[in-house]
Amino acid sequence: MFFGVGKLELLKVIAHPVRMKILDELTKGIRCVSDFEEFLEISQSNVSQHLSILRRHGLIEYFVDGRLRCYFLKDPMIPDILELLKREYEYDLPAPACCPVTRKETCTGERIR
Length: 113
What we know:
This protein is an alpha+beta fold. It has helices spanning 5-14, 17-26, 33-40, 44-56, 77-86; strands at residues 31-32, 60-65, 68-73. Strand 2 (60-65) and strand 3 form a beta hairpin.
């Protein structure tokens, strides 16, 4: 399966801890810069930089309400991605029977190189 450059770039953009927190907060609804400042405990300029990156990549958008910029999610994949990343798994995938670690049996197929 091929993952397009756009989707790979999206993963790079959201991989920053602050941007993950911003996106997670936006899954709950519209937020203003001051809302982010309070719970992230970082400066307004730093919050604005992260919001700018998210907006430039089409993940979020904003509207102006008086003096406030109110941000909201735009990309429909974001809630799904965040939900997947929050999942806890109680087990690992099983190793193949011919795995040298499990040493259950010898490999009957050819390795993919």
